[in-house]
Amino acid sequence: MQEPMSGSRMEDLELFYEEVKRYQSRPLWVSRTDPQPKAVPYLWKYQDFRPLLFRAAEIVPMEMAERRVLIFSNPGLLGRGPATSTLSANLQIINPGEVAPSHRHTASALRLIVEGDSAYTAVEGEKTYMEPGDFITTPNWLWHDHGNEGDRPMVWLDGLDSTLVNALDATFREEYPEESQPLTKPTEVSQRLYAAGSLRPTWVDRSRLHSPLINYKFAQAYDALSTLARESEGSPFDGICLEYSNPQTGGPAMASMACYASLFPAGMHTQAHRHTGGVVYHVITGSGYSVINGVRFDWTAKDTFVVPSWAFHEHVATEESVVFWYTDTPVLEPLGLYREEPYEENGGHQRVTGNFAPIPA
Amino acid sequence: MQEPMSGSRMEDLELFYEEVKRYQSRPLWVSRTDPQPKAVPYLWKYQDFRPLLFRAAEIVPMEMAERRVLIFSNPGLLGRGPATSTLSANLQIINPGEVAPSHRHTASALRLIVEGDSAYTAVEGEKTYMEPGDFITTPNWLWHDHGNEGDRPMVWLDGLDSTLVNALDATFREEYPEESQPLTKPTEVSQRLYAAGSLRPTWVDRSRLHSPLINYKFAQAYDALSTLARESEGSPFDGICLEYSNPQTGGPAMASMACYASLFPAGMHTQAHRHTGGVVYHVITGSGYSVINGVRFDWTAKDTFVVPSWAFHEHVATEESVVFWYTDTPVLEPLGLYREEPYEENGGHQRVTGNFAPIPA
Amino acid sequence: MQEPMSGSRMEDLELFYEEVKRYQSRPLWVSRTDPQPKAVPYLWKYQDFRPLLFRAAEIVPMEMAERRVLIFSNPGLLGRGPATSTLSANLQIINPGEVAPSHRHTASALRLIVEGDSAYTAVEGEKTYMEPGDFITTPNWLWHDHGNEGDRPMVWLDGLDSTLVNALDATFREEYPEESQPLTKPTEVSQRLYAAGSLRPTWVDRSRLHSPLINYKFAQAYDALSTLARESEGSPFDGICLEYSNPQTGGPAMASMACYASLFPAGMHTQAHRHTGGVVYHVITGSGYSVINGVRFDWTAKDTFVVPSWAFHEHVATEESVVFWYTDTPVLEPLGLYREEPYEENGGHQRVTGNFAPIPA
Amino acid sequence: MQEPMSGSRMEDLELFYEEVKRYQSRPLWVSRTDPQPKAVPYLWKYQDFRPLLFRAAEIVPMEMAERRVLIFSNPGLLGRGPATSTLSANLQIINPGEVAPSHRHTASALRLIVEGDSAYTAVEGEKTYMEPGDFITTPNWLWHDHGNEGDRPMVWLDGLDSTLVNALDATFREEYPEESQPLTKPTEVSQRLYAAGSLRPTWVDRSRLHSPLINYKFAQAYDALSTLARESEGSPFDGICLEYSNPQTGGPAMASMACYASLFPAGMHTQAHRHTGGVVYHVITGSGYSVINGVRFDWTAKDTFVVPSWAFHEHVATEESVVFWYTDTPVLEPLGLYREEPYEENGGHQRVTGNFAPIPA
User: Which residues from chain B sit within 8 angstroms of residue D244, using beta carbons?
Assistant: First the structure.
């Protein structure tokens, strides 16, 4: 096709292409593979979002409370997608007195509490109260609802795999026939059952696809992290890093999302590496910056940022920081699609070529 | 928001939405979830495509032979997608004398031979010759190439999970430094190693993510199917059905795609059921029809049709028929997203409400 | 062979049997399968053993401290075997100032502390101090030693799978070249790494065949048990029962021995059942009795008793009791040899036909 | 205890030991660990056993046909045990017209046909006819029986894990209420279902603990072996070696016994190695010798020999030979007790220090 074509040959081709089209087909050889929209590194500052959320708390009425959510919308995905190619990260605000109706869906969800207290989530008949830094699981197809019994709003980060579940054409959703599911279990029983982790109750039989724990308390995680920080150097890439694991299997907290907490002691500078699978990071405490594909992203407590698949990233803590993060690597691994490589040059540290600047809408 | 809003309130909201947008976010409560494009049941007749392919064999030059492919493009996915939400099904034609350069990619691929002979595929240093009905695996990240040593074109159906791998941002591709990888193994050695299936060579160590067999010969599959058909009724939904399994694990032939051959004896009418996961069906021999969500799709040898996720489907053979099919259910299962249900009414048979008519482009 | 045989026929047979014997063979049809020695239910009272142990502490010199052990020797196994058909249960006493030399063996061992304090076990470079009720693991082929830094003796129950490992001809043992292995890890680091159970350190890579935890503290287990006892009925057969699980897999603490703690609230009377696999029970606190194959075994704190494979057993607590127990069922399960059945009659309770009386030697 | 003891001290000790004994205990420090009986390398020649078997066929009446078995009794196990520490290897002879009553047991069994034809085994409602070299599985707790429909005796090698199952106190046995189980499946259907190995019928649901195949035909195994022998060197230790694998898992044919066929081309001399787990070898065809712990064992077709756990062994074929072998290594592996090492010196070949001589009874 390098030579110029005669007019008649071009007409023939046009006709051919038309004919192919008629049969709901298209020729691969003329597919202009349009540049695919692709998630880019990005950061959303809580200081921008806090006022918006509190305004939303006023303007969005209680009937729509369940949808009073601001979506972190990756600019690389044309503003129509979620935070990474497969994972959502949204901020939700719940007013005092609000109760969300029970429902369930095949998408798995997690909540990381940002501010507030006295609100609860109930999952499969068990209620748990939430505090800042707590990590709550509402896995695939379990009934869940929540309510705010306190006197100020609660804000949390919502993490979901709904984009992936949609891409797999496996989205189902169901409303509970009544507003709230009955509470059939003692409050926070799963914490008592599984708090000691390596002590497994023998009479409880549950799915092994997701963790039976619905609330991994921040106080317990921070305690473990800071104890370990005193005597270990942790991972070169992730600092003092704990996986929130399923105590029944040692595997990820949810089948599609592995969830972690990393403590970076003041001054720690991790090595850069990259891997397939997108990651959402949410800063629980502290401040510092991450270098992602050569660009510096400064962050402080309650900010959220994303590292897309295969982007080099490293972290620097200017003060002791704890960062929560989740990723879809458990989906990649059984398919043989997980790969990882360290940044070899320059002692494992990228050269910083710029600072993050928000992209204007 | 049920009450009419005052002008100033609406202006406030507009300003609010603008502000949210500035921060690369969007409010969930005003998201008009556009109807998602979704794969629909569809059928592509080989009699339409054969002339197109042979014309393509003339007009697309040898240098582009690797791309001389007609994509079955599901009309529900706006003509821009593959055959189902995650799986491609394309027809490719290879001229005599053509040799494709070696490459590898993280997408897994399969080939089901439609017509021709004397062409080969080579995978990881092993060459195998292909005949109609043969099922060839070219799994994730293994070097592969092919060539046609005969004197007439070969046509095959290409099945790929590339849409899924793209959605997971895990697409990698590499060209082999030379045109062809060296043939380091005896021709068709994997057939000899694994032909007897339950006899496992002890000195061979390979990945367990995909089958070590690169060619599942049709002759062997047909032999097994017709023997079983004489004494068994098989599956109520899938007829006399064999899974092309990985002899090292008993699991699917490829990590992301389970592959099957179903024999329907003349007159068989299966029960209807539906399940998550899209399916591509390719008729190797015979004729009959399938009822998909109430619509009748008549098919004959070499036709290809798709059943999207969660569509009811049942099959009727007017003569003995063998159908090859592949599906992404192995991806759904470990995520807890596989679900299945039989059609309970009317003795398990859908009422036929119409006949398939091709959708004009 | 029912008819009386003639003299000459008998002589022929004798000659035949002699001949078979010459070839290191024997006829199955004349095998008088002697009644096999078989473990029986038995109980060893600590009040009998404490004075013996303290006397042994005097008469067995320090050089032989490692062997200053009294073996619970099941009378059904002719006084030459261990406590059950496959598992040992022995009492060991360690004098102040004694240090055992480092060694390792393919038999797996556990220690349940009976009395004393200020003694430690070191496993693979990590030291842990032991208190009554603590459960210590010294798994297959890990270097271990111990010492008593306090001023009074320590007594513990030693549990081992050495009989099984012997039966499998897989016994290996090695002395450490120096008296003590070097302490390469911070004291009790595994407790800090795995104490929070569901928080898994990501940078630690260890075998998944046995738990990375070397000391499951009694205080933590008792806390979990008594919390659960307030709101749950637990298992009908085992009471409020926690498995000491491997936090990396959710599986048993050691590959060959599953280990449990059961709390029986005062007055609890469990249902009877039986299963394959022998069990060693050691009473940490409380008192009560168990009915084993119809015989009542009264027990109090620090006593040890065994339930052999397939014996019916049920437990009654006269005061709140915590019982530690271990069993070889993880060996049976993958072989398809585990079976279990409840006692169906009489509301699940056996009729008591007698009381345990020690068998005179 | 190095110093001579005074008379009174010795008396004290005697009294102490008496007292310990009274409590069904014994001191570890005076345990004279008697040398354990241990399986030794041994070989049983078929030419010795054939006349004995045919005489047994006459003298042991039909009612006891099921027990007309000569046990290969390892002289290291005091003539009371089986062929290795855990595995039995026995020869059984079945007269024409004999039918064995159906039964089942938790011990798993295998049959390797030595001579004869026209006899069948039936397992779980399926009948299969047996020919020399065929390997038949009668797994744990499946009903099985057999009969000889031909006009001459059949001889087979019986392999069992009954010693292991006994050691685990998990022996159960049941007679079928009638003489023969009903034949509910077509004759040899499992061969047709699983013959093509990598083609897995989708509608059959069976345990994954043992292979669904009941007869691995010798003709098929020999065909695969000799094809592979033309282009591969196989394993340095086991020659051209196929594992009879479970087509549903790729794992061993039975949960407790891995079964193999090795072809040694004429002149092949394998490298020596040793591993835990005892092995029974049965020569199907050919002749040669094995060197086991330095001793040469000459063998010819139909001979049986054993290599105990951890004995070095290597094989030499003087003509092309096919050897069937089975081992308990699948039991050792999940317990972390499997270990293996090559013989490093002298180019991997042991120095031969003697020839096997039968041990007189």
Answer: 198-199
